[in-house]
Design brief:
- Helix content is 39%, strand content 19%.
- The chain has 395 residues and is α/β, with parallel strands linked by helices.
- The chain folds into two domains: 8-290, Queuine tRNA-ribosyltransferase-like (TIM Barrel, Alpha-Beta Barrel); 298-391, no CATH class.
- The strands form four sheets. It has an eight-stranded parallel beta barrel, surrounded by four helices. Strands 1-2-3 form a three-stranded antiparallel β-sheet.
- Strand 15 and strand 16 form a beta hairpin.
- Helix 10 packs parallel to helix 14, helix 13 packs across helix 14 (350-377) and helix 14 (350-377) packs antiparallel against helix 15 (380-391).
- The chain starts with 29 loop residues before the first strand and ends with a helix.
């Protein structure tokens, strides 16, 4: 996955068509517009538009949020989506994407895109790992089993060719419960790689976020944050959390780690999508977060609702004429009954899985938008209490 660095001016697909004057003016600016305790509302400016925060980012692993088209994402309230460097590198290849105008043009999405570095996929597929050293990580591709290497420079070049608005640094993300020696090595390599990727070429206006590691170990997490902050990235992520440790420990760590990140840069929690978890990280000062949960649940026949999670395969919905969620204005809720959605799911009709995926995304996007409004009004705590109380109801 290592390729020669490209100059910024030769990389396609980053600047929207029709941009004139100073196309990069204001790009990278993050402004906090309101606070409520540790929680923040803000605006991140990218080449392809502004991102009001806090913001949930739907995951488009292979250049698509599964089963949904970009227009549906926009209508649901999405303003930024996530793409996966690992999968797009192997299929169809960043050179193909670049030749066709970059990832925005390729997938038909004209808003901001964040791409991960591919590191999480490599390290979560531990059975494919072959070697790990200062130069990078060597592993077997899940597509054909061939050996491949990912380096900081390679991660930078792939993301530059894709032309995303926000690129992520390559990091080492160990699972929960590893020993102190492995955790310390993960922090060392993450900082070493971040310094190298920070010096690599980027697409025009492309922002770069560093990822802090260290699990829930205060000394290592603080060290990782300090070393990354010294590199002056455009934003920072808390990585290595929500990877198998108890949820209480996750939130405790976010509570003391988030304030260590610069207040004038966006803060990104990688991989959280349950309603309670989203509200918890927002309350602790997180601005951006992503997860495959809403679409994955939709494809298995489950719905996130204001009264809790529903399994539409359950027989109790067979004659239920009520809408999926009376508080939701998505097509699944305004046009169809629970009974009909259950019928679609149990008959494995694609429409049912699409409708539930779209609903679940709309639910989380509305939840995040509501939290932003609550921060601006200074009543996030009461908003959170009301939401969590409803989630405990029997739907």
């Amino acid at each position: 996955m290592t390729r020669p660095p490209q100059s910024r001016v030769d990389l396609p697909g980053t600047l929207p068509s029709g941009v004139t004057g100073d196309p990069l003016g204001g790009v990278g600016r993050f402004v906090v517009t309101a606070t409520d305790g540790a929680a923040r509302a803000g605006v991140l400016t990218t080449v392809h538009g502004e991102v009001p925060t806090p913001a949930f980012m739907p995951v488009g692993t292979k250049g698509t949020v599964k089963s949904l088209d970009p227009g549906e994402l926009r209508a649901a309230g999405a303003c930024i989506v996530l793409g996966n460097t690992y999968h797009l590198h192997f299929r169809p290849g960043e050179d193909v994407v670049a030749e066709l105008g970059g990832l925005h043009s390729f997938m038909g999405w004209d808003g901001p895109i964040l791409t991960d570095s591919g590191g999480f996929q490599v390290f979560s597929l531990r059975e494919t790992l072959l070697a790990l050293d200062d130069e990078g990580v060597t592993f077997r591709s899940i597509y054909d089993g061939a050996a491949a290497q990912l380096s900081p420079e390679g991660a930078a070049a792939i993301q530059a060719a894709l032309g995303s608005d926000v690129a992520m640094c390559l990091d080492v993300c160990p699972p929960a419960g590893v020993d102190d020696k492995e955790l310390e090595e993960a922090v060392r390599l993450t900082s070493l790689w971040a310094e190298r990727q920070n010096a690599a070429a980027r697409a025009p206006g492309q922002l770069l976020f560093g990822i802090a590691q260290g699990a829930s170990e205060p000394e290592l997490r603080r060290r990782s944050i300090e070393e990354l902050v010294a590199l002056d990235f455009d934003g920072y992520a808390l990585g290595g959390l929500s990877v198998g440790e108890p949820a209480e420990l996750t939130m405790e760590t976010v509570g003391w780690a988030a304030p260590l990140l610069p207040g004038d840069r966006p803060r990104y929690f990688m991989g959280i999508g349950d309603p309670k978890g989203i509200l918890e990280v927002i309350e602790r000062g997180i601005d951006l977060f992503d997860c495959v949960l809403p679409t994955r649940l939709g494809r298995t026949g489950a719905a996130l609702t204001s009264a809790g999670r529903l399994n539409l395969r359950n027989a109790r919905f067979a004659r239920d004429s009520r809408p999926l969620d009376e508080r939701c204005a998505c097509p699944a809720c305004t046009r169809f009954s629970r009974a009909y959605l259950r019928h679609l799911v149990n008959q494995q009709e694609l429409l049912g899985l699409r409708l539930l995926s779209l609903h679940n995304l709309r639910f989380l996007l509305d939840l995040t938008s509501g939290a932003r409004a609550a921060i601006e009004a200074g009543n996030l705590a009461s908003f959170k209490r009301e939401v969590l109380a409803r989630l405990d109801e029997t739907a």
